[in-house]
Sequence to fold (314 residues):
Amino acid sequence: VDTLPESIDENVSTKSATPSVLKKMFKRPTMNKSLAFLAGVADVLCFNRHGCYANMMTGNTVKLATAASALKLTEVAFFTVLVMSYIVGFGTYRITDQVLRHSEDGNSAAGVVPGGPSPTPAIIAPVVFALFVLYDALCKLLPNHSRWFVPILSVGSAIVNAAGIESTGAVTCMMTGNLQKVGSHFADIFSNIFLRGPKITEEAHRAVRKPAMIVLSFTLGIFITNVAVRLSSALAQSFPVVALLRRLPPFAVLGGVYAGLFTIYSGPAIFKSPIQFLKKLSWESKDKYEAECVLDKYEAECVGLEEENEDVKR
Fold:
């Protein structure tokens, strides 16, 4: 999935139809880092405005249970809707992915090329963009009730997270698992050096770079967004351009970036043969559905697919 998918028509190369400057966006490592960075941006924007996350449900579940223990029914209702919205979004992506990846003869649908990315992220990208735009529009229309529109973001964020997980095999919106992998690797190094533990393989060293880069990208997203928000407040009066940028709907912009990223990642194979793709959509042969990504023993790379690991090796 890290390389450009070939066209359904073997005589036509998708590579020639896609600008070379975009080719790196088809690599899983770049996709992972981009999604992790944007997750950090989304968390800052949502938490600063509403004191909750549309992207991560652990904290929301804690707040739900805490509110229930204090009999704060309004808070219970809000966080219940928020968590359920996330479940709906994740399920929406999963169902869409299953529909798009089946064909009548049991083979992959048009646009689903062995070794190429699933078409689902590109197909559902406009939905993500529309949800983020809808949130900003409703907040502007009813600013006093804007917190109750966060579940709309939650649906869109769940779709984004599902697309990232299903396509790359990595969780980029939550850092706990990634930090566990990094911590375990350093513990293995310590054991090898000081306690004569087993030797660390080069494969293990390469594998830990992925969760480490996800954590770094997520942290940078949070840091840069916070700095940008503070600086823009101070500079808005002196620089008209900054004031203009502050008026942009933040989540609509973020949704557009997500949509563009997914379209670049998995769009070309679809757009070269859209009619063929649509004709072969079917619910048939569900038993032959295969997940796009099967992780290796380090839970770092997808196996069974031809991949280029240049970014990871660096």
